[in-house]
Amino acid sequence: MGSKIIYSNEYRNIINIPIEGIQDFEENQDKYVEKYQNLSSDNRFKSLLIPEKSLQKRIQHLAQLIVKKGDNTGRFDFLIVLTGAFIFGADLSREIYKISGMEVFFHTVKLSTYQDEIKREGEISRQVKFELEPTDIEKRDIIIIEDIVDQGFTLNALLDYLVSKKKVNSVKICTLLLKNLVNPSKEVKQSRKNIENHLDFIGFTVPDIWVAGYGIDASNDFRSLPFIIGVNEKFYLLN
Predict the structure, then answer these.
(1) Which letter, b or e, does each residue of 41-59 get, where b requires 16 or more Cβ atoms within 10 Å of its Cβ?
(2) Do the Cβ atoms of 3 and 48 come closer than 8 Å?
(3) pTM
(4) How many domains are there within the chain?
(5) Residue 34: which residues within 8 A CB-CB, separation 6 or more?
(6) Using one digit for the tens of pLDDT, what is the confidence trace for 9-38?
């Protein structure tokens, strides 16, 4: 089965990505295959999920939504979750400026978990550590910019931190990707439910597989790709 064709009107809404990936309707099929064929020989690569053109078109619509739902303060305060969301946040801010002329102010936060980096079946919790804390965000209207929402433990910790410790005025969450989890534990379900209730802007939903590209890494690989791929998990588990 080939990739799903996405048409211009579909970019206005959250796009559900099938395991085969998607292709923009404007892409010439021959050029499309040629453009990404070098990936097929990479043992780390599994599939092309979201091509560059589709990413940029959906981000344009996310920017429009953020501007439309703005709070009339004359500014946007992005809290970029490092390292994965830095490319997404930069592209999104430029689109906001193109649409509205409004400036985006950047803040950063970096978090890590105490447990293994690899998600395990039946996982019930992850302790979260702040490696880099944001400054000058008290009483701000914050938009968290995240690359991907998976189990939700990190974002739940960040939400609590912003409200209880930093005393921000309000928090919205914008995530490029939302993963459709398969057989999560009861604890993960609860964690995800809480986060999903706070998600204001979502770019795409993706299958429960390893993904990388566009700032997202697989063991520090693939961050610089201008598109999103599915990763061959076995390569990393065996190496």
Answers:
(1) eeebbbbbbbbbbbbebbb
(2) yes
(3) 0.92
(4) 1
(5) none
(6) 999 999 999 999 999 999 877 777 777 877
What would the two tokens of residue 27 be? 């892409």
d(CA 209, CA 186): 20
Task: Give the active site residues.
Answer: 150
Which residues span the domain enclosing 100?
A: 4-238
Identify the CATH number of the domain in which residue 26 sits: 3.40.50.2020
d(C-alpha 168, C-alpha 234), whole Å? 42
Mean pLDDT to the nearest integer, 177-186: 94
Tell me the C-alpha distance between 97 and 79, whole Å. Answer: 17
Contact 136, 86 (CB under 8 A): no
Q: What are phi and psi of 81, to 5 degrees?
A: -85, 110
**Rounded Cα–Cα distance for residues 169 and 139 (Å):** 4
Q: What are phi and psi of 168, to 5 degrees?
A: -70, 160
Tokens for 109?
A: 């936060």
